[in-house]
Write a structure and sequence with these properties.
262 residues; alpha/beta; nine-stranded mixed beta sheet; five-stranded mixed beta sheet; 14 strands
Amino acid sequence: MKLEFVKDGPALVIENTERLLIVADLHFGIEADLAAHGIHFRSHTKERLARLMQTIDATEPDRLVLLGDIKHSIPSLTRQEWAEIPGILDTIRRRIPILVFPGNHDIGIERFLKIGELQQKEGAVIDDVAYFHGHTYPAPDLGGHLIVTGHHHPQVSLHDEVGCSLQAPAYLRVAIDTKALGLKTPSSAGPTPARALLVPAFNEIAGYDIIKIARDPFSPISRCMKQDDAEIILADGTYIGPLAMLLNDAADEVKGGGGRGV
């Protein structure tokens, strides 16, 4: 299995017997929701879709796997989503076949999908890799596979002693407690722990700090991750280091009132 990190997505390519492009958390229609809360942005749907199509062209995948939250509004569809979602999906499927693992924001998305595109929200195994959005407990059969999930919008914030900072989308690769998640354990499983890969949001304004994910987990996967066996990787594939290092730095900053931290 080969993994390619696509910085300009952010997106992920996983290649085994077929080449799959993985994109999470597009959140088309987010501007309408922000406007309802008094934060006004023009729609960036055209730019976001153009970036997605450029990512498809650059990576040349066989299929596109959308890890949920294609739309944003819950529990209903907004006027913006009714107007934009059908054209967005038609544009994508004219270029490439799609598979959709629905997320918690995707209520009503099935009416815009064609036969075979909608997958179970609890996930499925495709080409020996498991996928699901991440807001539910995964299907037991996902055990024994790398689980690739959206929903968490991981983003890393780093600060050095002279005040320089970095805030960027990131992947969180974690060992998980398979028993707590209810996953089946194959009889051939060795000592290597089961792992999940939390994929950053494609939507450019949907980041959520990794430290907050660790300190206040809000999904079955994040509640069952083993924090002492978790690693952070930037969107371009740059290895940052273990999650524990950042958690310790953040704790030191709180105690000392300054210094390097997250």
